[in-house]
Design goal:
Helix content of chain B: 10-25%
Radius of gyration of chain B: 13 Å
CATH topology of chain B: Ubiquitin-like (UB roll)
Helix content of chain A: 25-40%
Structural class of chain B: mainly beta
Number of strands of chain B: 7
Largest sheet of chain B: 5 strands, mixed
CATH class of one domain in chain A: Alpha Beta
Largest sheet of chain A: 7 strands, mixed
Number of helices of chain A: 18
Number of domains of chain B: 1
Distance between the termini of chain B: 40 Å
Distance between the termini of chain A: 59 Å
Shape of chain A: globular
Number of helices of chain B: 1
Largest interface: A-B, 42 and 39 residues
Strand order of the largest sheet of chain B: 2-1-5-3-4
Number of strands of chain A: 27
Oligomer: heterodimer
CATH superfamily of chain B: Beta-grasp domain
Chain lengths: 584, 106
């Protein structure tokens, strides 16, 4: 173990939230280190995002975009909370709609290339966002640390004093002392075997935060993106058909029958094709098809554009010249689809509404620890409908400021030797065993538990099975994990060993939360409790570590403006009522 | 077994204990449209867990470019380069090798 130079603030995670947090922390006067588990601008979810920045029309008009002044911050707030099934922490939503124009203006001033849609979305790309934010980071004396896989938060007297991680390339454990820490590490989609998210998103910092004494919230809430490519392997995990289906095309069962219009009221289908609600509605429908045995050989369904006239498809190519989107060339795929073939697609783990519990200052329940972006929980309640890009910018800036403020009033402290020894021995223990369980095997088995039981549709029996399997892996199998690779430098087995423990822990928190919430709400759907129960469940599920034991509790939702309705309501009815409330 | 297998030659090198790279050949079951990343994953998961190739933060979308290697003497992203038969995989040239296919500064 070796110690690197301490900083006032340590920002963990170098996607958009981490980049924005580091900029703010530095600008507020704190010496700042930004740690990436890959390379700066080349890791995290932001780089592969679509990506829109959303803000209300009147706010847009104020910053010089041709926004609709009839629109308002309040309307935007209502839309987010109603479609979030009222589970949203309304204080977080207020901060989101309040700061969205400010953060958008700043991006424009920093030179981001964009197209304004005239309503609520500034269309850009994750690659471009990263370019602009990395450029701003490099203009400042922010210390950059690449390729360090963070594993632990250091504390003393229930206050954060730094963090520990593994330098992947050189195989060393490193200690980073700081007066405050911002976690900005995204979701834990890589706990699933099929996801649209990049590598590295395994919930390591959710688990580190929990271990150190911070609470998690709404861990049962997982959004799936419905039509994600299953095959060919080079395109696996790409969401391009999800983008296309907003324009045209259909999903088919194994014998070619279109099924999307079967399941629900025609109005629901229209909502699904024209709003962000498509993720939830299509994922539910496609999952039912697969569960009743009508899916494709690889466990998905088929996306087809066979019924769409060729000139209409060709017209759409203007939006994606040469059928290139982001950095990928889809021209072969489009030729194949235009020839009448279908591509296998399936729902993929896409976005986590739940995460580390924070307040409107991005403060967690642990002193000196802050969280921003997708790794934090509560903003989007039970269903995200507004941009996660706006989330990372707004919350990143807030967290950076809060962490900087905190660092000004606290002292740098020496890590506790006993805590360091425990971390070191936990991280190195698999090297001591020359025989035992292989990391690659165990990783697959952990992911299978998520695929089988924490997917789009859940039920009590499945969740109980997931919990018992995960507990058994954590207590009986993880201690038998062995690493065959002697070298510490870029040791894949070691990375997997670390990831397995984190994914198993984070899945356990998710499965326990999902079992605890005995209702269906938004993206959390239980076949044994199909109704949304506003009489008993306008509450957030909180996961806490009490002396090493995962403990669940609830707290009432945080309301500032919008009072939720009472009563119980079904899935379809609930969507139709929400549409009425939204007035369109 | 009439499943088609391919010979995969992978450059192995641990600069801490070896003086020069050497090739190690693995037999991998061939699947249509499989990528270099799939081949490496197969070796890691089923044959030899000690091989090093960048994958822990790889984006699979041609954006991060950190899985860049040399495939049959040509540079290519392992996540998007498809394999059609026997294949030789080297690290990118002119970079300092950390281990096997992982290089410094990519």
């Amino acid at each position: 173990m070796s110690e690197v130079k301490s900083t006032d603030v340590l920002v963990i995670g170098s996607g958009g939230a981490g980049l924005r947090a580091a900029i703010e922390s530095y600008d507020q006067g704190a010496s700042t280190r930004l740690i990436s588990n890959g390379a700066l601008g080349k890791s995290g979810a932001t780089m592969i995002a679509g990506a829109d920045v959303t803000l209300d029309g009147a706010g847009a008009a104020k910053i010089g975009l041709s926004g609709n002044e009839e629109d308002s911050r309040e309307k935007f707030f209502h839309d987010i909370v109603i479609q979030g099934y009222y589970l949203n922490n309304q204080k977080l939503v207020e901060a989101y709609v309040r700061d969205a124009p400010l953060r958008t203006k700043e991006l424009i001033d920093w030179g981001v290339k964009y197209v304004w849609d005239g309503k609520r979305a500034l269309l850009t790309q994750g690659i471009e966002l990263n370019r602009v934010l990395v450029d701003q980071v490099r203009k400042r004396s922010i210390t950059i640390t690449d390729d360090v896989y963070m594993t632990d938060i250091l504390t003393q007297e229930n206050t954060v004093i730094g963090a520990v991680g593994v330098d992947i390339n050189h195989g060393e454990i490193k200690i980073f002392r700081a007066k405050s820490v911002v976690i900005a590490t995204g979701g834990w989609q890589r706990a699933y075997s099929f996801t649209s998210a990049p590598g590295g998103m395994t919930g390591a910092m959710h688990v580190a935060a929990l271990r150190a004494g911070a609470d998690l919230v709404n861990m049962e809430m997982v959004t799936f993106c419905p039509n994600v490519i299953l095959w060919p392997p080079a395109l696996r995990g790409d969401i391009f058909p999800y983008i296309l289906i907003e324009m045209f095309g259909d999903l088919l069962e194994k014998h070619g029958r279109p099924f999307l219009r079967d399941e629900y009221d025609p109005l629901i289908y229209r909502i699904a094709t024209t709003t962000e609600w498509n993720k939830l509605i299509f994922s539910m429908t496609a999952t039912r098809v697969v569960l009743r045995g009508d899916g494709s050989p690889r466990g998905g369904t088929y996306y087809s554009i066979k019924t769409v006239p060729t000139n209409i498809v060709d017209e759409a190519e203007k939006l994606y010249p040469g059928w290139k989107w982001l950095r990928t060339d889809f021209s072969n795929l489009m030729d194949w689809l235009k020839a009448g073939n279908a591509v296998e697609v399936a729902p993929a783990a896409h976005y986590m509404e739940g995460g580390i519990l924070v307040d409107e200052r991005a403060e967690t329940t642990l002193k000196g620890l802050y969280a921003a972006g997708e790794c934090s929980g509560g903003l989007f309640g039970a269903n995200r409908v507004a941009s996660a890009i706006t989330q990372i910018l707004v919350q990143g800036a807030i967290a950076g400021r809060s962490a900087s403020d905190f660092s000004m009033t606290s002292k740098m402290r020496e890590p506790n030797k006993k805590q360091l020894d425990e971390i070191q021995s936990r991280l190195l223990s698999p090297f001591a065993r020359k025989t035992g369980i292989h990391a690659a095997d165990l990783k697959k088995r952990v992911r299978k538990i998520a695929d089988d039981h924490l997917w789009v549709l859940r039920n009590g029996n499945g969740l109980r099975e997931a919990i018992s399997k995960l507990e058994s892996i954590l207590s009986n199998e993880l201690p038998k994990l062995s690493i065959q690779t002697a070298a510490r430098t870029y040791n894949k087995e070691w990375i997997d060993a670390i990831e397995i423990e984190n994914t198993a822990q984070v899945l356990l928190a998710s499965a326990r939360s999902a079992l605890f919430r005995t209702e269906s709400r938004g993206v959390h759907n239980r076949s044994d409790y199909p109704l949304t129960n506003n009489n008993s469940w306008l509450r957030e599920v909180v996961t806490r570590n009490v002396r090493g034991k995962l403990t669940l509790t609830t707290r009432p939702i945080t309301i500032t403006k919008l009072k939720p309705p009472k009563g119980k309501i079904g899935f379809e009815e609930g969507i139709l009522r929400a549409v009425k409330e939204l007035g369109e | 077994m009439n499943m088609k297998t391919i010979n995969v030659k992978v450059s192995r090198f641990d600069p801490k204990v070896e003086s020069a790279p050497r090739y190690q050949t693995y037999k991998v079951p061939f699947e249509p449209r499989m990528t270099v990343m799939d081949v490496l994953d197969y070796i890691y998961e089923n044959i030899d867990p000690t091989i090093a190739y960048h994958s822990h933060t790889s984006c699979h979308r041609r954006v991060c470019t950190r899985c860049n290697v040399t495939v049959n003497d040509k540079p290519g992203l392992s996540c998007h380069t498809e394999v059609t038969g026997d294949v030789t995989i080297d690290p990118l040239p002119r970079f300092k090798i950390i281990r096997d296919l992982v290089v410094e500064g990519l």
